[in-house]
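Batch job 17 of 40 flagged for manual review because the log was empty.
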Amino acid sequence: MPITNESILSPAMPGVAEVDEYVCPNCGTPARGASVCTACGTDLDTYKELPRRSEFQEGGVEAVRAAYVEELRQGAGAPGGVLVRWGALFLDNLLCIGVPLLGVMLLALVGVDAVTVAVLAILALWLFYAPLMLAFADGQTLGKKAMNVRVETRDGKRIGLARAFGRETFKAILSAFPLGLLVDALVAGTNDERRSIHDRVFGTRVVTTQ
């Protein structure tokens, strides 16, 4: 059955004023404080503000849906693009690998062999840098800060240390497989929220900060 204005707007009871309540932007079902639409499964926490029932009466389903999808794509809080996320990843990897290697070269100039120390430093940064930054630096590693994006939960809150550690570990496991990160990026590129596999598993999303 196709969705129409009539099918989503129930008539008011006789003698009772119709409440202009918030509704799902995808199908028009009353939200009533829910995080997920009970009719179509749309994640209502994705939207900054839900439409009112009257908006459907005036513009219809397609008009409201288009307006809210466009809101998702623009401005601060919009989904971070795949290329932007890859740029942040490149900068963070450059930091985690480049800084220890630079230290090794500087120590080598004074006759100190610090290769083992460098390897341990790279491993420590790889394991703890991103989770600690995401948990305690407003969802931003230095790379993400440079690219103006941050990681948050689907309801816009900060991610805790456990979630951050799990997310980054899962991402590292994916990257160990051939084409793992490419598949992850393709998944992110096929949905409006730009959520990758590790975002879906750990209930996070990457959004712009300006």
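Reviewer: the log was empty due to a logging misconfiguration, but the result itself is present. The CA atoms of residues 84 and 90 lie 10 Å apart. Unflagging and moving on to job 18.
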